[in-house]
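Handout for the seminar on molecular recognition.
Each group receives one record of this type.
Step one: identify the two inputs.
Step two: read the structure output and locate the region that could contact 2-acetamido-2-deoxy-beta-D-glucopyranose.
Step three: write two sentences on what you found, then compare them with the reference statements printed after the record.
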Amino acid sequence: MLSKYFVSLFTLVVAVMAAPAKRASCSNGRTASNPKCCVWYDVLDDIQQNLFEGGQCGSHESLRLTFHDAIAFSPNLTRHGQFGGGDGSIMAFAQIETATVANTGVDEIVELQRPFALKHNVSFGDFSLARRLEQLRGRPRLQFLAGRSNISQPAPDGLIPEPKDSVDSILLRMGDAGFNAAETVDLLISHTVAGQEHIDTVSIRVYRRGTPLDSTPSTFDAQFFVETLLNGTAFPGTGPHLGEVESPLAGELRLQSDFVLARDPRTACEWQSFVTNRDLMALKFQIVMAKLAVLGQNPFTLTDCSEVIPNPPPAPANIRVAQLPAGKTLQDIQGSCPSCPSRPSARLLARPRPLPASLFPRN
Ligand code: HEM
Ligand SMILES: *[C@@H]1O[C@H](CO)[C@@H](O)[C@H](O)[C@H]1NC(C)=O
Ligand SMILES: *[C@@H]1O[C@H](CO)[C@@H](O)[C@H](O)[C@H]1NC(C)=O
Ligand SMILES: *[C@@H]1O[C@H](CO)[C@@H](O)[C@H](O)[C@H]1NC(C)=O
Ligand SMILES: *[C@@H]1O[C@H](CO)[C@@H](O)[C@H](O)[C@H]1NC(C)=O
């Protein structure tokens, strides 16, 4: 609780401090409230044009990278006299950190992004935060504070939750980093724009560009939250694999961690609350991502450069409430929140959403 208030207080103070009277002139006639932010216009121009062949890809991977870099923050390890992470080290120590099981697949995005950080002489820790969502429909605006130190050490192994982990173990780890059960769910909002390539490596050959975790992996909607509540019926490929459980839809993969968190009394209420309220979901994501972004950092030393990130277009009205996928009924929903009706049915649109014909194209 306390730390939550600290974060919003810090954020407010940082915003006030970073507002000098005159705006700095940046490249191409743009301006910024702080001259330190100008470089980020150039970084974003460059990655829009030159990273991932026209900037069409990489939002998903960048978001995952943000989490893996930040969550290695461990006050518990510090208390035990060990290095407690939290310094944006993945890019600097990719060979060590991306060799762990939890970071499988993260190496690709790190290698793609590093030359851009070097070219623009910005710190690796800032860079992993600068670009995360821009290609995704309905994305919320995220705060971007710059100025992290470039000096880091390799994060200890074992600090990133894995899909095979129990709810107890995930909540213990997340609690160490400063997130309570509801905030852990808020962070998992990211899985509404996610897919996998490394849990089941056979399915991805079938579906070419990865297996999505929900039916709309390029849209920042609440489909993930209703689809994870559905009774699992089959594996999309040759499952089960470690960390995978049966999913409700062909072509969709379900992580065991998402399955158990959706059904645990400590996390189910927050989970279910998003099914009928996508805008609340987007707001909670903004708040929790602001907290994630400053883990282990002193926000007073950072500069608010959020203004350089282009404003997202407004979320399309038709994604405000999740829809039941075609062929499913409310009977297939497995609700577990003890304090609310077992099924989030009241406002859930029972009109089935047809599944896309081409299996889930991904950005
Ligand atoms: C309990 C915690 C979590 C677990 C166990 C977990 C696990 C996973 C796994 C296994 C994948 C598939 C990776 C692959 O095979 O390529 C994945 C994908 C992803 N995760 Fe998580 N995750 C967790 C929390 C988070 C959080 C907090 C974020 C961001 C804030 C996040 C963002 C993503 C994204 C964006 C992807 C998709 C990457 C892509 O499509 O390339 N995850 N996650
Ligand atoms: C704290 O760290 C110790 C030593 O690494 C570990 O045994 C323990 O499980 C950790 N506890 C938490 C709450 O993370
Ligand atoms: C950040 O550190 C890396 C080495 O880990 C170095 O190559 C890079 O030039 C540094 N960048 C800045 C902005 O100091
Ligand atoms: C790169 O950034 C570092 C640290 O901010 C600074 O000391 C160095 O002079 C910069 N190099 C160039 C070429 O601008
Ligand atoms: C869930 O699906 C399984 C098949 O995988 C079926 O046997 C079971 O009856 C279903 N449960 C509910 C509550 O629909």
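Reference statements: The chain has 15 helices and ten strands. The first helix runs from residue 2 to 17.
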